[in-house]
Amino acid sequence: MSDKKPEEMLDSIFDRALSGKHILNDNHVLSSEYIPEKLPFREKQIVSVGQTLAPLLKGMKCSNLLLYGKTGTGKTVVARYVIDRLAQKAHSNNMKIRVAYSNARVSRTSYRVLTDLANSVDLSIPFTGLSIGEVLQRIVNKISQDGYFVVFVLDEIDYLVKTHSDNLLYELTRSSDRLSPGFLCLVGISNDLQFKDYLDPRVLSSLSEEELVFPPYTAEEIRSILLQRAEMAFTGGITPTAAINLCAALAGSEHGDARRAVDLLRISAEVAEREGAEQLEEKHVRIAVQKIERDRVNDALSSLPLQAKVVLLSILSCGDDDSSCSTGTVFEKYHNLCQKIGIEVLTQRRVSGLLSELDLLGLTSSSVVSSGRYGRTKKIHSSIPIQLVREIFSEDPVLTPIL
Fold first, then answer.
1. Second-level CATH architecture of 43-213
2. What is the spatial distance between Cα 168 and Cα 115, in angstroms, rounded to a whole number?
3. What is the pTM of this model?
4. Where are the alpha helices (DSSP H) in 209-305?
5. Cα dihedral angle (72, 76, 81, 87), rounded to 10 degrees?
6. What is the H or E stretch that residue 175 is in?
7. What is the tens place of the pLDDT at every residue in 322-352?
8. Three-class SS of residue 275?
9. At the topology level of CATH, where does 304-402 sit?
């Protein structure tokens, strides 16, 4: 433990930041929000999305579009790249085209998703107090009143459907049919290639008028993307080749996830800077890998709502870290735990939704196994050690009696 006072330690950190040598010159180009001027290896997809939306510039309606692909394959950045340029072109030609973007996992509720859409057409929606139907009707009235042609990109659309059903998508596609003047185009983005299996046939026929699948990046493509970003991000344009190669190799081995590779490079550089290192090395990348996984799990567990925490504890109560149990057993244990801490017991259907959410977060995994003449059973297993869950959940006093 250092003998320095907290203010002295802070002064040392800040003085080093002011006067020391910096590895990073611009960390924004390594953030998930940054949209590069060029998107290598996605030219074909950019053209496809652009061609789908181009009729709007002629005052015509366009097809709804679904973009598929695993995490980090460029779906989001391509969609945002195209709609940003569409908005610029519309603005320079005084056209009533508006673009909106919402990430369903971040927004979490249908209400917040619709608020993102409302903001794009300058419509103010109160934080609470309105039904989904009322919010949607106000948006439809505003679009029709002003004659807007709106492109609404709904990212991680599979999360919305799996946790809240496809009711909102159904209402959005129906609302688009009622607009006159005006038009609403939906661009859905999904990490789940089987996402369509969750949709009602009526929603599917309207939403998937056109589809585009994004293939994973190769390790060499990821390396090229990292080099492009590194030239802008690192001081003097000096590229830490060995560290970049390791980031590319790690991301390439995990389904070609370019987003993870860029995040890994940024966090690795931050680790090196905090250490006071003069250059980024492979050891910093390995430290960053551990930090990312630890932070991901901690954040996911800490941000779970109370009911989801109880469902996870129900799974863990089946036995040790390697144990798994059926959905029926999980619900039975969940019912008992709720009674012990005196909270509302949700329906089995709602618990199934929470199980899907835990699976999407990577906190659990499930598999369907054959039970002979008893049919097929879904088995659920926690992906997180019991001790870590207990450690993080211990901060919630409501859960103390069942930890």
1. 3-Layer(aba) Sandwich (3.40)
2. 13
3. 0.76
4. 219-233, 241-252, 258-275, 282-302
5. -170
6. helix 167-178
7. 667 888 899 999 999 999 999 999 999 899 8
8. helix
9. Arc Repressor Mutant, subunit A (1.10.10)
